[in-house]
Design goal:
alpha/beta
Length: 188
């Protein structure tokens, strides 16, 4: 298989970064986040790009970052919350092991506070989040091979659920011991 071992999609604040890093560690592979790629390339935060250059410019940067990461990165990849809005990006995700990390509005408020660091939520954050999810939920589901709810779950539990949903055991990881089960001791 070419492309990433796992691609994580979902709304802002769902835990893609935290869960992605845990998955990469558990599966002994690299981790990459397209939002971090954009920040590194631009030398400024995503909220600054939104406010200074507009959402359209950010989405152009995002499309390029996703295309590059999908072509180059063999490990765990997390995409920004809006990456799936682009039809071409959704096409690139077809057939890949994509997992949609889902959460409900109350969980989003609890985790993020829906503050100003989230440029699309700067005005009436709870209502904006609900509207974004109404627009995006079907797109997340469209590209996903599996949906893993994150509400009231620790990141470690979510990571384990992703591994189980994709049926990724040690046999799926190059150089891993196929008799081992991720996160559990061998029972020999």
């Amino acid at each position: 298989m070419s492309g990433p071992l796992i691609v994580l999609v979902g709304p802002m604040g769902v835990g893609k970064t935290t869960v992605g890093a845990l998955l990469a560690e558990r599966l002994d592979t690299g981790y990459r986040d397209t939002d971090a790629d954009i920040v590194a390339a631009e030398g400024r935060e995503i909220s600054d790009i939104f406010f200074e250059d507009g959402e359209e410019h950010f989405r152009e940067l995002e499309r390029a970052a996703v295309r590059s990461a999908l072509a180059e990165h063999p490990g765990v990849l997390a995409l920004g919350g809006g990456a799936i809005l682009d039809k071409d990006t959704r096409g690139l995700l077809a057939g890949l092991p994509v997992v949609y990390l889902s959460m409900e509005a109350n969980e989003a408020v609890r985790r993020t506070g829906l503050g100003l660091a989230r440029p699309l939520l700067a005005i009436n954050p709870r209502q904006q989040w609900k509207q974004l999810m109404e627009e995006r939920r079907a797109l997340y589901t469209e590209v996903a091979r599996a949906v893993v709810p994150t509400d009231e779950r620790a990141p470690e539990e979510v990571a384990e659920a992703v591994i189980e949903a994709l049926e990724l055991g040690p046999a799926a990881v190059p150089g891993a011991d196929p008799s081992a089960t991720p996160g559990k001791e061998n029972q020999t």
